[in-house]
Amino acid sequence: MLLILLAPVIGGLVYGFERIIKARMQRRIGPPLLQPFYDFFKLADKRKMIVHSAHAFLGIMHFVSLWFALGVLLLGGDLILVIFLHLLSTALLILAAYSTRSIFSHLGANRTAISILAYEPVLIIIAVSIFMLTGSFDAAAAFQSEQPLLFKMPLAFIALLLVLPIKLKKSPFDVAEAHQELTGGVELEFSGIFYEAIYTAKWLDYVFCYALVYLFAGNDVLLGAGLIVFTFFYLNALDNSTARVSYKQMLRFSLTVSFSLAFINLLINSLT
Amino acid sequence: MYSLITLLFVVPVLISLLLLIVPRSLAKPLVITTALLLSAISVYLFIDTEGVYYFGVPAYVNDIVTVADIILLVFFGWIAIKKRSWIVGLMSLLQLAGLLYLLNSMPAHHSLQFMVDKLSLFMFLLINIISGIIAVYSLRYIDEEHCSSFRKKYFLSTIFWFIAVMNLVVSSDNLEYFFLFFELTTLASFLLIGFRKDEVSVKNSLTALWMNQIGGLAILAAIFFIHHNDYGDATFSNLLANAKAETILLPLALLSIAALIKGAQMPFSKWLLGAMVAPTPVSALLHSSTMVKIAPFIILRLSPALKDTPVANVIIALTGFVFIAAAIGALSQDNFKRILAHSTIALLALMIMMAAVGTPVTIVASLILVLFHGISKSMLFLNAGILEKVFHLKQSSDMDRLGESGPFTALVITIGFMSLLLPPFGAFIGKWMSIESLGALATDKKILGALIMVAVAGGGAVLSLLYFKVMGLLIARTGNEDKIHFEKTGPFYTITTYLLLGLLLVTVVGLPLLLNNYFTPVATQITGTTVALVTEGWTMYLGAVKLPLLPMIIAFLLLPVTMVAAMFVRFKNVDRAKEYMCGEKVNYSFSSFYFSTDRATPYFATAGILFFVALIIVALI
Q1: Mutation target among B436, B468, B567, B591 for the A interface, most CBs of A within 10 A
Q2: What is the nearest CA distance from B331 to chain A, expressed in angstroms?
Q3: pLDDT for the residue A105
Q4: Amino acid B580: pLDDT
Q5: Nearest-angstrom CA–CA distance, A86 and B161
Q6: What is the mean pLDDT of residues B577-600?
């Protein structure tokens, strides 16, 4: 419960820590840990500007619905419901981007939609695999599982690791954001206090993704922590060491490699 | 009771004839009163009826049916000659030969020809209310069509003809009668699809004709095998009574094929996609309340016999495949009506699948989908017609200004899409229950269950992407003007839209109540086992399926309300900025994105054919 309320703060800390790690990997010192929060307060002071109200409103609702999806996940709710809610919250952001007449927003929205197409099937297969193993779609069943799911569905975990960069917009799969090409894509037209919602929603996404990783640890807290730390370093190392691929390459990779891995795992799970 | 049911058959036929004769000024009150009357009768029947009613007709009606069958097939043959379509001719000849053979060899039947149970009553509600609303809408729509005054009358007349035939289809027990009515729906759809008489219309109506004739042929073959194997009279009730017999699978498979063709499952999806050329009320009619709904109806009727058979497994696999394939196929579409058509095919696949699984919970899921899909799709299609007639828009990519020029229509279409998509709207619950209950299936047949779950969930994700793609266009605005002014589209358009919106809202809000009093009794009668509906705190249990109400309610507040509110919320005291263009001046067309899935779609049809072959093979073994 506390975790849900504090989710944006935790996400912010993760982001702050990530920026330090990233800087160290590049032999820089990097910003202080609380830098994301400093940015947060600075943004709140900026002049309020919007393109139109519907756009700004949808941005805020993206944050709210993402928080809700995260809440359902952390409370051990139904995984299919969680995945749908997460999809819908992303869809609100896409809609916001479409509602403007901005080229970069549109391109960003198109690419975000393609990203959904790339990671969503894998998440669904993971949910179905968890159902096959625990007999329930509830995340609670996975959290309480005596035997960590990691050992029963290692391929699915690898598939998850392969799609997480898409979800978190990390290189090599950061096509949706792609600062150099799209100047932020869907985020572009938000500014000031209204950008705050999008900015913190990204922090929520961190918590969401690490909660998904934690699903694989069952009730083994130590293993869960280990998995999260591992995933954290893996994501940052990957982000720092790879170049962006095109969205077509991303989609192809995800639907052939990641999808097949998760699918093979599902077949194995349903055979035994 | 019987007199009321017969009224449902006779009144639309009479009105259909009357509409041809009376002057145009009388058509309006006539259509409106009849629509109200039929809806009232079907509601009354549903509330008042318990148990199953069998009733027969005098013996001379049998002869009339036989003669009508032959006349109809000869008429099809005449069409084939007139339009020079060898395939329609071939089908008609085959059907005629089959029918004559059966008439010769068949013993006289003794059983009652009609059976009205809760499933029929459920279908009555859907058919009469939704088609009634569509008929009222057509009064205005057809006025704007360029054709002679007689053709306009003829159009309205055919709609009521269709309603009558549909009422007959869902209440006939005797398969020979069923065959006639099945073919009559084919005829009605043929006439309506070809209504505009241009080259494409004629071509597509012929496609619809021969594809559905295959269905008719399958029914004839089913009748033949029922006699051949001595199950007594060829009736649905006899089929169900012999459900345990070994050789029953073949007639079941044949009837299922008829259903799958009516339901436009691949590779027979072409006729429904081609039906788009007709005036929009026809599409609304075909997609929501008539024609394609025969498919889930047949499977629901047969589900106690189909359950757990290899035939059911093939149907489940086929529909699972169609669900995801149709969703993928829809992504590359731009024509608004074609997008809707693809999503119909996908959702029909889901309904048929749920009916074929045949557990009480999946039957409920199937029924929920049938009803909500009917309401949502008719609303969407009627508004597609408004787009066409009032705003002159056909391609979805042209709709990016609709948010400003026609905010009300944009809003209604958005709500329509959401109702197919989001919690707690019916279709979402149906979809979700199907996933949950397929989980139950998966414990026995693990691989099939797992694959189907992936198909359902994945197809659902693709469909949501599709809906959001269209909704993204509808919500677009420039920001130059802050206020929205709802447009006026004329009373017939507005009233029908409000009626459907109202129906949608009532059914959503009253869903727990409806589940208890509406869906579960029907499912109970079909399966013969009671479906328990228990509410414990914030969780509702339907059989083994758990519905967490609290997240559903919050999700409802969050998502659909957000979408509606986004049109109205205005931030005060905030400066406006123009969009960032990176200093470039380019003309960018603000359309939407497409996925070129065209290359994959031919393979889908091939795969569909393979599934149909598998269906027969499995039934033979």
Answers
A1: B468
A2: 11
A3: 78
A4: 63
A5: 46
A6: 56
Model pLDDT for residues B322-354, shown as the tens digit of each residue: 888 888 888 777 777 888 888 888 888 888 888
Residue B338, SS3? helix
Residue of A nearest to B324 (CA): A121
Contact B559 A191 (CB under 8 A): no
Instruction: Taking each helix axis as running N to C, give the angle between helix B118-125 and helix B360-386, from 0 to 180 degrees, rounded to the nearest 10.
Output: 20
Return the domain boundaries, chain A: 2-271
How long, in residues, is chain B?
621
Query: In chain B, whose CA is at the least distance from the CA of A137?
Result: B436
Q: Please judge whether B458 and A110 are an interchain contact, meaning their C-beta atoms are less than 8 angstroms apart.
A: no
- Chain A residues lying within 8 Å of B438, measured CB to CB: none
Angle at the Cα of A168 from the Cα atoms of A163 and A172, rounded to 5 degrees: 65
**CB-CB under 8 Å, A124 with B450:** no
Residue B324 with chain A: CB contacts under 8 Å? none
Distance CA B621, CA A262 (A): 34
Structure confidence by residue, pLDDT tens digits, B269-300? 888 888 888 888 888 888 888 888 888 999 98
Q: Pick from B439, B465, B570: which is nearest to A117 by CB?
A: B465
Q: Report the residue of chain B nearest A102, measured CA to CA.
A: B579
- Residue B519 contacts residue B163 (beta carbons within 8 Å): no
Mean pLDDT, 10 residues at a time, chain A of 272 residues: 77 84 83 83 76 79 87 84 84 82 77 83 85 78 78 84 83 68 67 77 87 84 85 84 78 82 82 70
Alpha carbon of B441 to those of A182, B234, B310, B424: distances in Å?
A: 46, 31, 14, 24
Domain chopping of chain B, boundaries: 1-235, 307-570+598-621
Q: Are B313 and B449 in contact, with CB atoms under 8 Å apart? A: no
Distance from CA of B356 to the nearest CA of A (A): 21
A102 and B CB contact within 8 Å = yes
CA–CA dist B472, B417 (Å, integer): 11
Q: What number is the average pLDDT over the span B369-383?
A: 87
At residue B119, the pLDDT reads 86
State yes or no: cis peptide before B296, omega within 30 of 0.
no
Nearest neighbour of A98 by CB, restricted to B460, B476, B571: B476
Cβ-Cβ contacts under 8 Å for A59 (sequence gap 6 or more): A93, A96, A190, A194, A195, A197, A198
| Cα dihedral B356, B326, B127, B45 in deg (nearest 10) | 30
- Which residues neighbour A223 within 8 Å (Cβ) at sequence distance 6 or greater? A148, A150, A217
Model pLDDT, residue A61: 85
User: Scanning every residue of chain B, which has its alpha carbon at the shortest distance from the alpha carbon of A96?
Assistant: B472
**A116–B contact, CB cutoff 8 A:** yes
What are the beta bridge partners of residue B576? A50
Of A185 and B217, the one with more pLDDT: B217
**Beta-carbon neighbour count of residue B491 at 10 Å?**
9
pLDDT at B169 over 80: yes
What number of C-beta contacts closer than 8 Å exist between A and B? 185
